[in-house]
Design goal:
Shape: rod-shaped
CATH class of the largest domain: Mainly Alpha
Length: 320
């Protein structure tokens, strides 16, 4: 349910007293209206109107009785008919003023029903009625107040509509994302595109001729399609696969692709020793790196020996 917080209540419609000798039904209706018995007043005014349908007072007060009972459509119909037949600016102002009030009543009913678009439409129409009332009576403070009231109300309704639309858009985005995720999860994957270890080589290639008994080149218990280094030569399969992992590289053309070949170039030196070169490091850089490692290891061994010669156990007092 929508709640609108405003500074004050709407100004109400007013009765019109007869300038001539009051007819019994109108006089009776006025008394009932003032006592708050609007249904009884409606009956009295209706009798007066039936007796003289040209009576402005009977028609106007009947419209007021409809309005007070929340019968805004019937009130609007009565005041609209009166406005068409009037030429006096004061009476026209009164009719348009109460037309605005009746339209506002319909607007507020739409708000309670959470019908924002309808409420905005009705509110805009109420503004136009108030404008017409002020054109005929620019000094009517009640009408000016009601006009500003409706303008404030429309601003609030528009803000609510914008927020509602934003929430709907966000919810729709979430639903679309969830639907896409569900579709992706339920979409059967093409076995030819599966790559469990992410090395670029399709699983169906790495599994070999018998998918039920996948190939395990290095015999480490991890099948090639889940092993990042199938031949355990220190060079990742993604490197040995070459430029087109869909058709793994076979450097020496012996029928065994490099990622499963321990000597992929058949030069007599195992790939495990040539790992640095295969990984993109030149042989010279690899040799220098190996020499530096050996040198550092020799220095470490010397320091350990020197420390052993100078080490003497020390006695410790018990800390209790």
């Amino acid at each position: 349910m929508i709640k609108i917080i405003l500074t004050s209540a709407i100004c109400a419609a007013t009765l019109v007293a007869t300038a001539q000798t009051e007819k019994p039904y109108i006089r009776e209706g006025n008394g009932q209206y003032r006592d708050g018995h609007y249904d009884q007043a409606e009956n009295s005014y209706q009798k007066a109107f039936n007796e003289n349908q040209s009576s402005y007072e009977a028609a106007f007060n009947l419209g007021d009785a409809f309005y007070r009972q929340g019968k805004y459509d019937r009130a609007k119909e009565k005041f609209a008919a009166l406005a068409k037949s009037q030429t006096d600016s004061k009476k026209l102002a009164e009719c348009y003023y109460n037309l605005g009030n009746s339209q506002l009543g319909l607007c507020e009913a739409a708000i309670k029903g959470n019908k924002l678009d309808e409420a905005i439409k009705l509110g805009k129409e109420a503004l136009e009625y108030y404008k017409n009332s002020l054109r005929n009576n620019p000094d009517d403070k009640r009408c000016k107040y009601n006009y500003l009231y409706v303008k404030t109300l429309l601003d609030q309704l528009q803000d609510m509509k914008n927020q509602q639309q934003q929430n709907q858009d966000q919810n729709q985005d979430k639903q679309n994302q969830q639907q896409q995720q569900n579709q992706d999860e339920n979409q059967p994957q093409n076995p030819e595109n599966q790559d469990s270890d992410g090395d670029g080589i399709p699983d169906n290639v790495e599994k070999g001729d018998n998918p039920d008994n996948p190939r395990d080149t290095d015999g480490d218990g991890v099948p090639d399609y889940k092993d990042n280094d199938s031949d355990n030569d220190g060079v990742p399969d993604s490197v040995e696969a070459g430029k087109n992992p869909q058709q793994p590289q076979d450097t020496d053309g012996d029928g065994t692709p490099d990622y499963r070949d321990l000597d992929s170039d058949n030069d007599g030196t195992p790939d495990s020793e040539e790992a640095a070169a295969l990984m993109g490091i030149s042989k010279e850089d690899a040799d220098r790196l190996l020499e530096a490692i050996n040198k550092a290891d020799s220095q470490t061994q010397k320091k350990v020996k020197d420390n052993q010669d100078s080490y003497r156990p020390k006695a410790h007092d018990k800390n209790w």
